[in-house]
């Protein structure tokens, strides 16, 4: 009885949450008005003598109730159809034991989730709305359960039960890293960087592992049955997206992943893998020779200045950052008689994937070893700025950097101070007072280097290997770089290179789709279009770049150096 009551209350809470947060998702029939009939005719286009076979694209959305994903992918599906593609959609119909939409904060009792999964609380409000949404647009919707047998599901359950946790973490299925993505999903569920302190951690990991196996089976069978040109979907990591991408790559199917960018109305698209990986490995030839004159430089510096207040962004963490020098110096305990070195953290649990270039086992190992080094460097002062997203992000962290530091250092060295995530101190104003920055994976390294700040990289930051930062490939290399502190500002050659790269990231890789406007709910954006013509070729250069990339594999680079800066 108690369990039934708990489930009822949880379901009622989720229904209220769902109704309150989906008011902004696009009703295309209302948006298009008189063009709705025209769109339905386009969607029903059938191959024949006058209509030769089309490129087939799979939008592997999977999570119908993830409105940030379904909203943009509905735009992509329509735009691709208008360019001659035949578009399918893949949705989980409640068969997965866990997924990216599952979060510990949505479940009053993690033990109940570990035992029963998301079906009673979450799946009903996810699959059906997503299915209706895409089918109303005329897309063919594939359901997970159509591509797997009960016997296979039973085998997955047995495997998840019988393997040890260590075997699960290292597991690969026909070359697909099922264990890695299952672990990343479980860490995201708990919003932690490890599972050791979670009583239900192992059980939840096993749920994600079963879901990973199911996704791998579904994907492989679907790809074998349909001759797709490419598959496109959000994130590219976690379960199920990371598994879908890995299976597609294994069978030779082209993969496109996307994510919202910092800049308003902009998105990052990448070929073959999640941007977490591709922007690390992107050849420098993509940006080394682009035109970069006074106009581009001025646009970049103007945008970087706006980043301090987020006026040109739809992802930022401070509405009123404090920039007064005296206030910052006092709160951060910055001395006036020695060089100050800034250390910027990431959110501990985020994107916990394997990166070969990391000098440390984890970000926290890096933070603690850095503190230990500075304990023997009284000539310098280390100030640690904890990422505000720990408490202000989409999924607040349940494992905090400050707590981990206090556990390892009950008394901090006198020359080390911490600015916690809740502080309103401007990270940019704080780093203005620093001689150099130490980073692990933060994207802020792009901005800091572009302002002339020396940056030492110990992890998977985008700036690694671009020719203007100090990159450590091992703990020993990192320790040697720290002995060289304080550092001189970047010379003119490195500064110019850093700015050229920053321009590439913020103006070329962040592709504007100018009719996508911000909302105050879920999804965080919606298409502000009034006619089908706005989705057709030639109406939006950014949308053209995206569609061409999905259809033909061309670069996902917006030619800002030719067209100028698209402002919101």
What's the quick description here?
This protein has 568 residues and is of the alpha/beta class. The protein has 23 helices and 15 strands.
CATH class of the largest domain: Alpha Beta
Low-confidence stretches: 11-23
Largest beta-sheet details: 7 strands, mixed
Q: What is the alpha-carbon Rg in Å?
A: 24 Å
Shape estimate = globular
Count of DSSP strands: 15
CATH architecture of the largest domain: 3-Layer(aba) Sandwich
CATH fold call of the largest domain:
Rossmann fold
Q: What portion of residues is helical? A: 40-55%
Mean pLDDT reading: 90
User: End-to-end distance, in Å?
Assistant: 53 Å
Strand order of the largest sheet: 3-2-1-4-5-6-13
DSSP helical segment count: 23
How many separate structural domains?
2
Instruction: State the secondary-structure class.
Output: alpha/beta
Q: In what range is the share of β-strand residues? A: 5-15%
């Amino acid at each position: 009885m108690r369990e039934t009551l708990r489930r009822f209350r949880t379901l009622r809470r989720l229904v209220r949450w769902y109704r309150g947060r989906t008011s902004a998702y696009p009703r295309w029939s209302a948006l298009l008005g008189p063009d709705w009939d025209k769109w339905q005719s386009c969607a029903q286009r059938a191959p024949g003598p006058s209509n030769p076979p089309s490129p087939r694209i799979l939008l592997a959305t999977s999570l119908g109730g993830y409105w940030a994903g379904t909203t943009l992918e509905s735009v992509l599906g329509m735009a691709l159809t208008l360019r001659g593609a035949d578009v399918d959609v893949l949705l989980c119909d409640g068969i997965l034991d866990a997924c990216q939409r599952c979060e510990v904060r949505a479940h009053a009792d993690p033990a109940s989730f570990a035992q029963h999964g998301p079906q009673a609380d979450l799946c009903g409000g996810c699959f059906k709305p997503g299915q209706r949404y895409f089918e109303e647009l005329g897309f063919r919707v594939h359901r997970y359960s159509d591509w797997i047998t009960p016997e296979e599901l039973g085998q997955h359950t047995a495997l998840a039960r019988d393997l040890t946790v260590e075997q699960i973490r290292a597991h690969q299925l026909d070359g697909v890293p099922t264990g890695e993505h299952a672990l990343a999903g479980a860490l995201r569920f708990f919003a932690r960087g490890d599972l050791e302190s979670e009583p239900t951690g192992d059980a939840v990991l096993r749920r994600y592992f079963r879901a990973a196996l199911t996704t791998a089976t579904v994907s492989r069978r679907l790809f074998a049955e349909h001759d797709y040109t490419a598959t496109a979907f959000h994130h590219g990591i976690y379960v199920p997206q990371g598994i879908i991408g890995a299976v597609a790559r294994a069978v030779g199917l082209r993969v496109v992943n996307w994510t919202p960018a910092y800049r308003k109305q902009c998105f990052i698209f990448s070929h073959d893998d999640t941007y977490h990986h591709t922007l690390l490995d992107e050849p420098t030839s993509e940006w080394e020779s682009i035109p970069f004159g006074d106009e581009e430089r001025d646009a970049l510096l103007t945008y970087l200045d706006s980043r301090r207040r987020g006026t040109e962004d739809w992802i930022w963490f401070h509405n009123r950052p404090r920039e007064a020098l005296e206030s910052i110096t006092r709160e951060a305990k910055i001395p006036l008689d020695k060089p100050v070195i800034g250390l910027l953290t990431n959110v501990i649990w985020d994107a916990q994937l394997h990166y070969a270039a990391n000098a440390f086992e984890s970000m926290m190992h890096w933070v603690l070893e850095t503190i230990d080094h500075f304990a023997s460097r009284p000539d310098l002062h280390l100030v640690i700025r904890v990422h505000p997203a720990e408490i202000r992000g989409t999924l607040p962290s349940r494992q905090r950097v400050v707590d981990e530091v206090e556990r390892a250092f009950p008394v901090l060295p006198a020359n080390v101070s911490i600015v916690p995530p809740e502080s309103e101190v401007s990270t940019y104003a704080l780093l203005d007072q620093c001689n150099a920055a130490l980073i692990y994976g933060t994207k802020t390294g792009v901005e800091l280097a572009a302002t002339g700040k020396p940056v030492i990289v110990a992890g998977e930051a985008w700036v690694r290997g671009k020719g203007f930062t100090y990159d450590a490939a091992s703990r020993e290399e990192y320790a040697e770089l720290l002995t060289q502190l304080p550092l001189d500002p970047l010379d003119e050659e490195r500064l110019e290179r850093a700015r050229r790269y920053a321009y590439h990231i913020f103006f070329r890789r962040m592709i504007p789709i100018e009719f996508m406007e911000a909302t105050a709910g879920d999804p965080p954006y919606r298409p502000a279009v009034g006619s089908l013509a706005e989705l057709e070729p030639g109406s939006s250069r950014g949308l053209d770049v995206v569609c061409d990339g999905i259809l033909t594999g061309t670069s996902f680079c917006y030619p800002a150096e030719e067209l100028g800066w698209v402002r919101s």
